Amino acid sequence: MNIIVNSIFVTDQAKALSFYTEKLGFVKKEDEPLGKHRWLTLVSPDEQGGTELLLEPDEHPAAKDYQKRIFAEGIPATMFGVADIHEEYKQLLEKGVEFTMTPTKMGAVTIAVLDDTCGNLIQIIQK
Q1: Would you give the distance in Å from CA 4 to the centre of its chain?
Q2: What is the DSSP letter of 91?
Q3: Measured between alpha carbons, how far is 36 from 34 in angstroms, rounded to an integer?
Q4: Where are the alpha helices (DSSP H) in 1-127?
Q5: What phi, psi does 75 have (nearest 5°)?
Q6: pLDDT for 2-27, tens place per residue?
């Protein structure tokens, strides 16, 4: 069994697509209309056949509530791995990305947390 798609709720699919491609560097893989929304997935530019990230609309009341509550508690919705967190942090700051946590060593890993502007906190991690 493999993980092929992981979803993240977003307040606006178009805004999320722009942020995740232009700021974070992901690549759009699938973009299929589904009524007023889209099946919109992204992949890492280094692993275009790898796990897809689905930018899923947060229209369901349970999704909205979940997204708002974990954001308010400072809980990241998902985590992305990076090779050099300090360099990644610097590059993302230059692109205007806002962080709620600067790179912080936590045991064997270093983490930072950013705001995706679409209702989520995202953790980046260097192992």
Answers
A1: 16
A2: H
A3: 6
A4: 13-18, 61-72, 85-94
A5: -95, 120
A6: 999 999 999 999 999 999 999 999 99
| Whether this model's pTM surpasses 0.90 | yes
Geometric angle at alpha carbon 114, from 117 and 110, rounded to 5°: 165
Q: Using CA atoms, how far apart are residues 37 and 57, in angstroms rounded to an integer?
A: 7
Question: How confident is the model over 65-115, as pLDDT tens digits?
Answer: 999 999 999 999 999 999 999 999 999 999 999 999 999 999 999 999 999
Question: How many Å apart are CA 6 and CA 46, to the nearest integer?
Answer: 17
Write the CATH number of the domain with boundaries 5-126: 3.10.180.10
- Spatial distance between the Cα atoms of 34 and 94, rounded to a whole number of angstroms: 35
Among 70, 22, 18, 63, smallest CA distance to 40 is for 18
Main-chain phi, psi angles of 51, to 5 degrees: -60, 135
Contact 83, 90 (CB under 8 A): no
Which of 57, 114, 53 is closest to 88 using CA atoms?
114
